[in-house]
């Protein structure tokens, strides 16, 4: 009989970051690491230094992302659109 083991490194709490999946014990969203990894080309080792995390925390976040890719990709697209809107508003205010 197989026993599935869980790694308790990713949490969701409505009181932290609106219930978005975060690395346990931090307010760091899984999507924050994924964006740094995929778009800014940061390696897992670089992410450990950038965010003061263990390698197991980084790999847990990446594994969680790939297991929930569709939902988290929607969240990332939403974050990118919000960032663009904020940037456009800031630029228009400055001019």
Protein architecture, described:
It is a single chain. The longest helix is centred in the C-terminal third of the chain and has 26 residues, at 69-94. This protein has 95 residues and is mainly alpha-helical. It has one domain: Winged helix-like DNA-binding domain superfamily/Winged helix DNA-binding domain (Arc Repressor Mutant, subunit A), CATH 1.10.10.10. It has helices at 30-38, 44-51, 55-67, 69-94; strands at residues 10-11, 22-23.
Main sheet: strands, sense, barrel: 2 strands, antiparallel
Please give the domain count: 1
User: Would you count the extended β strands for me?
Assistant: 2
Unreliable stretches covering 5 or more consecutive residues: none
Please state the oligomeric state of the protein chains shown: single chain
Strand order of the largest sheet: 1-2
Number of helical regions: 4
Radius of gyration: 16 Å
CATH class: Mainly Alpha
The CATH architecture name reads Orthogonal Bundle
Mean pLDDT score: 92
CATH topology: Arc Repressor Mutant, subunit A
Molecular shape? elongated
Question: How would you summarize the topology of this molecule?
Answer:
Blueprint: E1 10-11, E2 22-23, H1 30-38, H2 44-51, H3 55-67, H4 69-94
Antiparallel strand pairs: 1-2
Helix pairs in contact: 1-3, 2-3
Quick overview of this protein structure:
Helices cover 59% and strands 4% of the residues.
Name a few traits of the molecule:
95 residues; 59% helix; mainly alpha; 2 strands
């Amino acid at each position: 009989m197989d026993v599935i083991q869980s790694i308790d490194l990713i949490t969701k709490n409505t009181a932290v970051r609106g219930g978005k999946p975060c690395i346990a014990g931090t307010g760091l969203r899984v999507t924050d690491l994924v964006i740094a990894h995929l778009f800014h080309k940061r390696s897992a080792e670089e992410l450990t230094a950038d965010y003061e995390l263990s390698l197991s925390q980084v790999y847990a976040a990446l594994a969680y992302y790939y297991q929930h890719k569709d939902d988290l990709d929607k969240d990332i697209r939403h974050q990118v659109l919000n960032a663009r809107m904020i940037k456009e508003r800031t630029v228009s205010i400055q001019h």
